[in-house]
Write a structure and sequence with these properties.
Layout (H helix, E strand, L loop, with lengths): L1 H20 L1 H19 L10 E2 L5 H4 L1 E2 L3 H8 L2 H20 L1 H12 L3 H12 L6 H11 L6 H8 L11 H29 L3 H9 L4 H28 L4 H7 L5 H4 L2 H11 L3 H29 L6
C-alpha cells in the first residue's frame, strides 16, 4: 500500500511540475476551452427538451415530461422518411463530389510549374470561403433567375426556354452541391497542400532518377503521402456532412422543392421557430446527432481496418 501511495504522490508531483513548467501554453489554451464549454457543451443541457412537452414560459419545472413521445411524433410523421432520405442523399452528394475535389485541386496546385499561376489559382479558389452564405445564396438565386439570370440568358442564346430552376425539385441537389463546392473547395484544399509540402522531396528526386514520369510520381508518391490526412479529414467531415449546411438550404429551398431539399435540420427549424413545438424540434435534432455519431464511429472502424489510420 505504501508503494502505491508513493507512486500516486510522484505522479501528482510530476503532473504539477509539468503544469507549472508549461503554464503559458495552458493559458493560451484556456480561451478556446472556455469557448467550447460555453457554446458547445453548456447548450447540450437543453437537449432535455426532447423529453418534455416544453413550454418556454414555464421552463422545465412547469413542462410535462413525456419521455420518448416527441421521438414517436417525429418518426410517425410523413416528414420523417422525406427528411431522413434528403439528409443522407445530400450528405452523399457532398462526400462523393465536394470531398475529393479539394484533394485534386491541392495536387494540381502543387504540380503546376509556374509558381505565379499556382498562387493565383490558390487565391482565386480560396476567396469564396470568405463570402457570406447569405450573399452566396443571393448570387445563386440571381444567376438562375428566369428573367435576368445569366444562366437563362446563355440558354436563351441556344433557343432553350427560360426556366426558374429554384422551384424544380430535381434541380435542387445539383445546384446546392455546385454552390457548396465553389464556396469550400479552395479553403478545404489548404490542409492537403500543407500535407503535400510535408512529403520528402528526395522521394521525387529518386523517382525522377528512376525515370518515373509526372503521373507515376503522383500515383506512387503524392497520393500515398497524403492518404493519412485524407482519411483523417474524411472521418472528421462525415459527421458534419449530416448537418448539410442547413443555413444555405433555408435560404434556397421553396415549399415546391421540399421533396428533395427538406432535411432534418430544416424540419427542426420549422417545428421549433415557426410552429413553437420545441420538444419535437429538439427530438429531431437529437436524432440527427445520433446518426452523425453512428456514421463517425462506423467510418473510423472501417478506416482502421482498411488503412490502419483512425482518430482513435
Amino acid at each position: 500500500m505504501k508503494k502505491k501511495d508513493e507512486l500516486i504522490v510522484r505522479r501528482d508531483v510530476s503532473l504539477a511540475k509539468r503544469l507549472y513548467k508549461c503554464w503559458p501554453l495552458y493559458v493560451f489554451l484556456l480561451p478556446g476551452l472556455i469557448w467550447y464549454i460555453m457554446f458547445c457543451y453548456k447548450p447540450m443541457i437543453g437537449l432535455r427538451m426532447a423529453f418534455y412537452d416544453y413550454n418556454i414560459f414555464r421552463g422545465f419545472s412547469g413542462s410535462k415530461f413525456v419521455g420518448l413521445e416527441n421521438f414517436k411524433i417525429y418518426m410517425s410523421s410523413p416528414d420523417f422518411g422525406r427528411t431522413l432520405k434528403n439528409t443522407l442523399m445530400i450528405a452523399v452528394w457532398q462526400m462523393v463530389i465536394c470531398f475529393p475535389v479539394p484533394v485534386i485541386l491541392a495536387i494540381l496546385i502543387t504540380e503546376m510549374k509556374s509558381k505565379i499561376v499556382s498562387k493565383m489559382v490558390q487565391t482565386i479558389s480560396f476567396l469564396p470561403h470568405f463570402i457570406s452564405t447569405v450573399v452566396v445564396c443571393g448570387m445563386v438565386v440571381n444567376f438562375l433567375s428566369p428573367s435576368t439570370g445569366i444562366i437563362n440568358m446563355i440558354l436563351g442564346k441556344f433557343g432553350i426556354e427560360a426556366k426558374y430552376f429554384m422551384v424544380y425539385p430535381q434541380y435542387f441537389r445539383p445546384i446546392y452541391t455546385i454552390m457548396t463546392l465553389w464556396q469550400t473547395a479552395g479553403f478545404n484544399a489548404i490542409v492537403y497542400i500543407a500535407a503535400l509540402m510535408g512529403i520528402d522531396p528526395q522521394l521525387y528526386e529518386a523517382a525522377i532518377v528512376d525515370g518515373a514520369g509526372r503521373w507515376r510520381r503522383i500515383i506512387n508518391i503524392t497520393i500515398p503521402g497524403i492518404i493519412p490526412t485524407v482519411v483523417t479529414m474524411f472521418i472528421m467531415n462525415i459527421g458534419k456532412m449530416v448537418k448539410v449546411g442547413y443555413e444555405s438550404i433555408l435560404l434556397l429551398y421553396e415549399p415546391s422543392t421540399y421533396a428533395t431539399a427538406d432535411v432534418i435540420s430544416t424540419y427542426s427549424f420549422r417545428m421549433g421557430i415557426q410552429n413553437g413545438d420545441y420538444g419535437v424540434a429538439t427530438a429531431a435534432g437529437l436524432f440527427e446527432a445520433v446518426i452523425a455519431l453512428i456514421l463517425v464511429v462506423a467510418a473510423n472502424k472501417v478506416s482502421k481496418r482498411l488503412t490502419e489510420t483512425a482518430l482513435w
